[in-house]
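tool=predict chain=A
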Amino acid sequence: MPLPRSIIYEKNRLVVLDQRKLPYLIKFYECKRSDDVVYAIRNMVVRGAPLIGITAAFGFYLGVKNGESPEEVYAKLRDTRPTAVNLVWALKRVMSVVQNCGSLEDIYEECVRIYKADVETNKKIGMHGAQVIKDGYTVLTHCNAGALATSEYGTALGVIRAAIEQGKSVNVIADETRPRLQGAALTALELHMDNIPVKIISDNMAGFVMRRGLVDVVIIGADRIARNGDVANKIGSYMLALAAKHNDIPFYVAAPTSTVDTEIESGDEIPIEIRDSREVLEISGIPVAPEGVDALNFAFDITPAELITGIITERGIYRPEDIFRAVGDMPGSYNHR
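tool=predict ok
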């Protein structure tokens, strides 16, 4: 049985798959107001940079439809998650409709365009990225960059899907991705339901399995990419890149060009979300640390450009230092701030 779509849009409501319940329960979360969408994004009902952007766009539409000022709804949606740039990119798109005196129907149609474009963008990313996967390869991935993190197809997992559609045999190793376990709960679920061979490993095992020769290529997604090619992604990505470099394993990032923030020069300028320490101190509400002990919970880290073999986009594969060229001359491009 295939997974249901991550997001179902209608003119009066938005229905999203509640990813907090996976892999045990298929449950949906209904949004009729912009505040419902704010909750869904902030509390990780929806996850993944592209999907967050799409959801925010529809949240903007619902807010304006219900009489909120565009500026008010824009601001509160913008502030839900600080790291993923697709959020602001999508909000800029729908706000531009308002600034150009577009109607409510025009805003809705722009949301639909953002959704449909994401589907096609992911398939193009997959088409370009499939060339880095040879028949019989084992791919190591981190967090979730699949259909659950996008409109339908996925970025990093889209590359894997495209390679399999080309007839290649591919195996996947998925990091569990502490503390929210997106790799174990989401990536492994997607791949298993698509009959793609997958094994889960604990995050601290990744370097060892690379050294053992069990990994041919690492492919991850991204939440924001700086002009110089530095990449923000789920915490733990930086360690993977270091281990891959040491073991001479190619390390690729798969992301749409909307993830490139053209206004920041390096990863040092990317805001890193710090989440509730209870996510580290508990698993499914059960304490795993002594009472009274605190924890650090950075949600993302920065992988320097020099550790990245290439960035796979819908326009092709770029060296990290050339990624700005992929978006600098794009017609209709938007600043993210």
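The two ends are 41 Å apart (CA to CA). The domain at 7-122 is CATH 1.20.120.420 (Four Helix Bundle (Hemerythrin (Met), subunit A)).
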